[in-house]
């Protein structure tokens, strides 16, 4: 597969010997230039409608009835960032355990009930939110909502289920820690957020998971799972009236606790030249090296939001600069990409690619060079206009499916962004100019405060990397400690 | 990675064809019937189209009936490498121009190579339909290739090999199961190929492959979305009509995979194996077989969701596995039913194998209940509805029916076959195919589990054969 990553821009391929082989000889000369587009039609996105129930639960319905499918997502506006530092993974375990038993149904009975409808029911925590999501044929949304409400309100968190899930998480972590790209992501979070919330792995560490007790889970559920800290989004083949009625029926009597939920505020460090790290995780058996450039970014409610996503789109995507330089021009990777990830109290910028071990240093340098050029180099409209079109197209395609539509509305609702933004997105992106992108890159994405993490067989790239960057830290994968910003086991320190 | 995509695809093949009759299903959900137009040009190009004006976009697919099984000798991975080259230059397009015509105007494009087909697709604002028809006709009739872009794209494909086979802990495990499960049919060569064979590929190979397989009578054009049918026909005639059908035979793989004659086992050790892997394959018939719907049902019953049998037994109750999967990988010439488990820490691979075998035995000895069968059917309907939410998903389902199943109308009729599968059918296919002599068992273990004494450090793996009449799997 050619995968969804970048290729090139206004390149001039060296005029090499072109071997033309007209296989199927045409009876007449083919047209030499592409026919131009005909008149465009405008895109229209569905309009979400909302109301708040007396218990404080915000309900949003977004109707689109082409396929007889409905997705519903219940968001709790608290996720892995609320994990106490010793107990990383507790929010995710809590959310996952919801479907593992209620006062009236066992884990197996819950799975059988939802799957008998042909549907699915999944829960887990992300950053800033925990969620329960169901997706079913529209004729079955009633019973599916009943199951969703049951697991939300009546989970039992039995010790047996906690132990079972803990073992699953530990096993899963073993596999993740054998995967270079995932190791790089875990390490990046510690490099950017250090010991602040958001710095730990969402699903815990080998050391934190065994510490999580039944009471920690119950406490977390009691504190954060309440209607005034939740949003329900229902989308697909359902009317607003029916959606609101379902919400009222199954969640209208979900009691709101008397005490207010104490508001949370998180402070995270900003990336600066002084705290930048060039970090190698040496994994001698790695079949490929993962390179990840990372730094702090912007919050979701930043006024720089559209400047930021347009700036990122110049680097990201199949024809974005990173993939063009690394994949298309040099054949160094199957794909290079970047993301501007935004959260409630922090954001980060990440650029990544995987390459053969021998090219680890070259890909690291190329990645930083492209980040740097975004602030200092030219950005002609002939480049910016297609990148904006690509961004807008991706946004529209993301909402083609019921679950994509619900996901998009959910992320707006979670961050308190006006739901009308769906229908303002195109014009907001179009308004961004080259100067906006360059200013954003200069102030928010400076390369000299961007850290680099390289996970792979270090002996194959370390000398070159040390030539390109001063002060390279090397941590053998066996000594990696994800519990603190030091990232190295204390016992192994020289 | 590529493989995963393709399994999903092929796995859905049987399910796909025909999920949507305009009838009431068990779930009382009305399935929209896919109303398509069909024509064949004098040069043999088949054209299928579906008008859907719900959004101002259009999906274009071109399916070439050539896949990894058609890789030339000593050139495993070639069909897939060739697919990448199709994004380079043509007579009238510079390299990467396909991206200019799609990504730059808010669309996208991609392609994938499966065992039996290679599929190119674009999703664009509907006012660009004519432009893309021109571009697809260009690369069907006038592909060009230069040494530099060939070498650079080959390096990309080699990185794709590393990313899908070498980097993830179980990449080599899947690769090995694919390689060993077939002994004669070219399905034994994983579509991603090998670095050695990719390095040996030349520009001349590209030319020959294009001449041999990329011809209008080996292609199916599918368009789904917002367009005017009459105008569309005019454009198809204008851009594809002049391409001549070559007067050359179209080679087809004739090799038949022999039946297995005794249980075989293979053990491989790897440096980066966090938890042991256990796999099992059985040879089953092709996706065109009458038994295909029942085998698909077995797949769903074993592996879909947390109420599935493998999850319930291996992960939830016995806690012997970290993850499990079953897959009815039914292809055009032959199929392979695959079961895998990643073994939980502290458990033995032998225990996981025993648990997988117990689930097979249960399917053979006891009919599935009416409720379990009904559940599987509802799961199939839901997944097909989801698959067809997008224009490209619809085009894909139609392409599967037309090219791989040989009749586009199976996009509308095959669901009836799936809905008609009985408990007796499930039990019958389990007994027919999941026999001892048809089983191949794979262990993928960490180096630390390699027996200390007498083991040859250089050996690539250990193989044994039980009760066979001399059929060695290489």
Fold and architecture overview:
- The complex is a heterodimer of chains A (494) and B (474).
- Helix content of chain A is 37%, strand content 17%.
- With 494 residues, chain A is of the alpha+beta class.
- The model of chain A is unreliable at 1-27 (pLDDT under 50).
- By secondary structure, chain B is of the alpha+beta class.
- The interface between A and B is large, with 102 and 121 residues.
Which features would summarize this protein structure in a list?
heterodimer, A: 494 residues, alpha+beta, six-stranded mixed β-sheet, globular, disordered N terminus, B: 474 residues, 16 helices, 41% helix, 19% strand, disordered C terminus
Helix tally of chain B?
16
Largest interface: A-B, 102 and 121 residues
Q: How many runs of DSSP E, i.e. beta strands of chain A?
A: 13
Percent of residues in helices of chain B: 40-55%
Q: Which runs of chain A of at least 5 residues are low in confidence (pLDDT < 50)?
A: 1-27
Q: What is the arithmetic mean of pLDDT of chain A?
A: 92
Record the strand order, biggest sheet of chain B: 1-2-7-3-5-4
- Strand share of the residues of chain B? 15-25%
Oligomer: heterodimer
Give the strand line-up of the largest sheet of chain A. Answer: 2-3-7-4-6-5
Offer a quick outline of the entry:
With about 500 residues, chain A is α+β, with helices and mostly antiparallel strands. Helices cover about 35% and strands about 15% of the residues of chain A.
């Amino acid at each position: 597969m050619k995968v969804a990553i970048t290729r090139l821009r206004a390149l001039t391929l060296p005029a090499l010997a072109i071997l033309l082989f007209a296989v199927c000889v045409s009876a007449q000369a083919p047209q030499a230039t592409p026919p131009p587009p005909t008149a465009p039609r405008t895109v229209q996105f569905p309009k979400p409608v909302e109301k708040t129930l007396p218990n404080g639960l915000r309900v949003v319905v977004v109707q689109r009835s082409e396929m007889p499918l409905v997705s519903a997502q219940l968001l709790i506006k608290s996720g892995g960032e609320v994990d106490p530092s010793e107990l990383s993974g507790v929010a995710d375990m809590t959310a996952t355990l919801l479907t593992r038993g209620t006062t009236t149904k066992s884990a197996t009975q819950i799975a059988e009930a939802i799957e008998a409808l042909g549907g699915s029911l999944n829960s887990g925590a992300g950053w800033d939110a925990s969620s329960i999501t169901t997706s079913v044929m529209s004729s079955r949304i009633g019973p599916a909502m009943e199951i969703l409400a049951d697991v939300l309100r009546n989970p039992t968190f039995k010790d047996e289920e906690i132990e079972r899930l803990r073992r699953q998480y530990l096993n899963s972590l073993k596999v993740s820690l054998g995967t270079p790209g995932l190791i790089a992501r875990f390490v990046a979070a510690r490099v950017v957020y250090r010991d602040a919330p958001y710095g730990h792995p969402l699903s815990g560490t080998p050391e934190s998971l065994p510490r999580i007790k039944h009471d920690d889970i119950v406490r977390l559920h009691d504190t954060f799972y309440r209607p005034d800290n939740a949003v329900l989004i229902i989308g697909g083949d359902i009317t607003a009236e029916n959606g609101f009625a379902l919400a009222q029926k199954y969640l209208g009597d979900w009691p709101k606790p008397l005490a207010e939920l104490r508001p949370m505020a998180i402070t995270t460090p900003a990336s600066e030249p002084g705290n930048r790290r060039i970090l190698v995780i040496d994994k001698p058996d790695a079949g490929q090296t993962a390179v990840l450039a990372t730094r702090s970014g912007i919050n979701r409610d930043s006024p720089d939001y559209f400047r930021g996503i347009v700036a990122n789109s110049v680097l990201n995507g199949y024809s974005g600069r990173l993939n063009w330089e690394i994949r298309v021009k040099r054949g160094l990777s199957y794909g290079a990409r970047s993301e501007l990830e935004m959260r409630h109290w922090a954001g980060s910028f990440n650029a990544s690619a995987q390459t053969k071990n021998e090219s680890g240093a070259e890909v690291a340098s190329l990645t930083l060079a492209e980040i740097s050029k975004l602030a200092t180099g030219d950005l002609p409209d002939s480049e910016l206009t297609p990148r904006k079109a690509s961004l807008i197209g991706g946004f529209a395609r993301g909402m083609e499916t019921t679950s994509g539509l619900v996901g998009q509305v959910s992320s707006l609702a979670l961050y308190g962004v006006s739901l009308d933004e769906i229908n303002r997105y195109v014009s907001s992106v179009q308004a961004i100019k080259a100067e906006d992108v360059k200013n954003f890159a200069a102030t928010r994405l400076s390369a000299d405060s961007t850290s680099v993490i390289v996970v792979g067989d270090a002996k194959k790239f370390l000398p070159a990397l040390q030539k390109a960057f001063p002060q390279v830290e090397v941590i053998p994968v066996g000594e990696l400690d994800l519990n603190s910003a030091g990232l190295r086991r204390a016992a192994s320190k020289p | 990675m590529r493989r995963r995509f393709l399994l999903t695809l092929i796995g859905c093949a049987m399910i796909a064809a025909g999920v949507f009759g305009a009838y009431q299903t068990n779930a009382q959900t009305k399935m929209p019937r896919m109303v398509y137009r069909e024509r064949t040009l004098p040069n043999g190009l088949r054209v299928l189209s579906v008008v859907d004006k719900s959004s101002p976009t259009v999906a274009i697919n071109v399916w070439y009936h050539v896949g990894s099984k058609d890789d030339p000798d000593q050139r495993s991975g070639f069909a897939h490498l060739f697919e990448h080259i199709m994004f380079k230059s043509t007579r009238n397009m510079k390299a990467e121009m396909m991206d200019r015509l799609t990504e730059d105007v808010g669309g996208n494009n991609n392609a994938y190579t499966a065992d039996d087909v290679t599929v190119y697709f674009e999703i664009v604002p509907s006012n660009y339909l004519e432009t893309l028809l021109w571009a697809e006709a260009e690369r069907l009739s006038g592909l060009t290739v230069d040494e530099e872009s060939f070498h650079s794209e080959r390096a990309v494909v080699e990185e794709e090999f590393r990313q899908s086979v070498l980097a993830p802990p179980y990449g080599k495990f899947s690769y090995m199961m694919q390689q060993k499960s077939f002994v004669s049919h070219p399905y034994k060569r994983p579509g991603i190929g090998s670095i050695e064979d990719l390095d040996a590929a030349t520009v001349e190979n590209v030319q020959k492959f294009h001449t041999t397989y990329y011809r209008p009578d080996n292609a199916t054009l599918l368009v789904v979305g917002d367009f005017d049918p009459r105008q569309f026909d005019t454009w198809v005639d204008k851009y594809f009509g002049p391409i001549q059908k070559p007067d050359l035979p179209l080679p087809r793989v004739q090799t038949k995979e022999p039946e297995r004659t005794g249980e075989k086992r293979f053990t491989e050790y790897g440096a980066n194996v966090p938890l042991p892997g256990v796999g099992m394959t059985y040879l089953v018939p092709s996706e065109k077989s009458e038994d295909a719907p029942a085998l698909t049902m077995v797949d769903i019953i074993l592996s879909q969701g947390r109420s599935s049998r493998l999850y319930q037994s291996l992960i939830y109750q016995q806690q012997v596995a970290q993850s499990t999967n079953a897959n009815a990988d039914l292809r055009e010439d032959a199929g392979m039913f695959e079961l895998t488990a990643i073994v939980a820490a502290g458990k033995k691979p032998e225990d996981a194998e025993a648990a997988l075998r117990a689930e097979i035995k249960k399917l053979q000895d006891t009919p599935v209940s009416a409720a379990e069968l009904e559940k599987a059917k509802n799961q199939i309907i839901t997944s097909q509805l989801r698959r067809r939410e997008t224009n490209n998903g619809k085009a894909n389902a139609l392409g599967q029916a037309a090219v791989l199943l040989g009749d586009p109308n199976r996009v509308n009729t095959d669901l009836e076959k799936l809905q008609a599968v009985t408990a007796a059918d499930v039990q019958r296919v389990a007994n027919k195919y999941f026999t001892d002599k048809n089983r191949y068992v794979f262990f993928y273990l960490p180096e630390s589990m390699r027996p200390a004494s007498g083991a040859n450090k250089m050996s690539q793996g250990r193989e044994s054969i039980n009760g066979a009449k001399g059929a060695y799997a290489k």
